[in-house]
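Chapter summary example: a protein plus pyridoxal-5'-phosphate.
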Amino acid sequence: MRFRSTRDAQLAVGFGEALAQGLAPDGGLFVPTEWPRIQAAAFPVRESLAGIGARLLAPFAAGDPLAEPLPRITAEAFDFPAPVVALGASGRLAVLELFHGPTAAFKDFGARFLAACLARLRGPASRPLTILVATSGDTGGAVAAAFHGRPGIEVAVLFPKGLVSPTQERQLTCWGENVRSFAVRGTFDDCQRLVKQAFLDRRWQEERALSSANSINLGRLLPQAVYYAAASLAVFRCHGEPASFVIPSGNLGNAVACLWARRLGLPIAQVVLAHNANRTVPDFLDSGDWQPRASIATLASAMDVGNPSNMERLRALYPQLSEIRAAVSACTVDDEAIRARIRQGYQELGQVWCPHTATAAEAYARLPAARRDSGRWVLVSTAHPAKFREIVEPLIGRDIAMPESLAKLLARPSECTQIDADLESLRDALRDGGVSEGRSSG
Ligand SMILES: *Cc1c(COP(=O)(O)O)cnc(C)c1O
């Protein structure tokens, strides 16, 4: 299959090429040019997540060098579960837990799939590949974990010095070997600017092969359709009804993956986008005016996006406003309501939710009762609450146990290099290994 830019149908490339390029040359995002229909009956009962992934993604990789290794890629990437757990007494509500990967957030699925693909696209004579990632928290950790220890690939994680939480910083700086982290004396925007500048700089292109592993990469988004396929099949087989999803949303990658799964024919009914106080998307659905704005900081920080990039993919799927309105609904939840929902989830259901998952739970609670009662609803849980323990523990009045994988990471020694927010500093630090600072252990 070919993948085209959202901005120009003539710019089309194969699967592997779309993954390697990340962004289309005209600045657009890659989307599939066809939507093969897949019937629920095509999936054997009790198939593993990896098996569902190989079957679902096969038509997209068809004709590409990645087609042959695809089953091994999905086996490697999807080696942890994404269970649908029933919730409450009604029997109509469930949670899709996407936090059982190495860094305890759903970004592990996409990052691991992309890493497994890029590793296989490299030939024995390929130049070493450098992955540059700017991160304000979750993304950098998932990408670092996914590429750690892969031969011929080096990762440079850039984060704003002093502007990520201590738990997040440890996840970004605990890797060593082929993963190096840089504490940039600046903001997250400075980090993103550095990555963009490096891509535009001829000397960088001559010195090393660069890739971004950015969240808009097709290789991170498409594999996310796999857990929606698996979850909707599980609900359909158990209850004979399609599943409806409430999705904590920021950049809309997770939501678009769900809509792609529905377009492919999986048994998915309604899709609700749960946004925090960054209300660009809910306002757009209300007014019809697209007005991106600066992001504002909230408790659900991984969704602090004022100008969601994947809106381009949503519009490519539904060119008319009326189609978008028919396809999804959206709601905005402020910090106070997120706090209240974390408390309520614990007191009424015994659930401990991260702020992002609580945003979805609140959006669900605000649906009209008739709508709630008529569907099989699944709340998408995007991160383990232990990642946000500073916020959640005081609200529920007890400690949260760390998942084992996360505890292991946090126990590793951490190491990072401080740099100024300019391209020369990054280049020097990358070239000579830089000056290590902040080494600590335990
Ligand atoms: C990235 C992230 C989101 C937002 O997902 P998008 O694909 O950007 O909409 C939600 N929750 C968590 C925990 C995240 O890390």
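Key point: The chain has 20 helices and 15 strands.
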